[in-house]
Design brief:
The chain has 5 helices and 6 strands. By secondary structure, the chain is an alpha+beta fold.
């Protein structure tokens, strides 16, 4: 099995589920706090290579949900600069294995990359804490 460096947001329900799945499959997972990590545009870009800018962003981040940040309208350099200043905007998890990088936890892609045999564990990316009532979301701020 692989050693996977797993950049996550502490307290994120889905990141905890994703981490648990990796461990259950026998991988050694080194968890790092995505929000405390020192990011540079070049370092982040490695995780996003080949993806459209809109897929780089955490759609549960309050500024994205409110429409204040519109990932589909951003140029790559501006998007990276925003994420360096505000890591909560970064789609998670970010993962590294043997110099290879990935963003997000789409089961079929993770399965192909790490050889996981995952049961259908539901949506492993969208924050499950959003509802019609006020609550504290995965984005770390109260949502309307």
């Amino acid at each position: 099995m692989a050693v996977v460096v797993f950049y996550a947001k502490p307290g994120c329900v889905n990141n905890s589920r994703q981490h648990r799945l990796l461990v259950e499959m026998g991988h050694q997972v080194v968890v790092r706090d995505l929000l405390d990590e020192v990011w540079t545009p070049a370092r982040l870009q490695r995780f996003f290579a080949g993806l459209p800018v809109a897929e780089w962003f955490n759609t549960s981040a309050p500024r994205v949900r409110s429409g204040e940040v519109r990932p589909e309208d951003l140029e790559p350099d501006h998007a990276l600069a925003l994420m360096v200043r505000e890591p909560l905007l970064i789609r998670r998890p970010l993962m590294e294995k043997g110099g290879e990088t990935r963003v997000g936890f789409e089961p079929e892609q993770v399965k192909a990359w790490l050889g996981l045999d995952m049961a259908n564990d539901g949506d492993l990316e969208t924050c499950p804490r959003f509802s019609t009532a006020k609550h504290v979301a995965c984005g770390g701020q109260e949502a309307p």
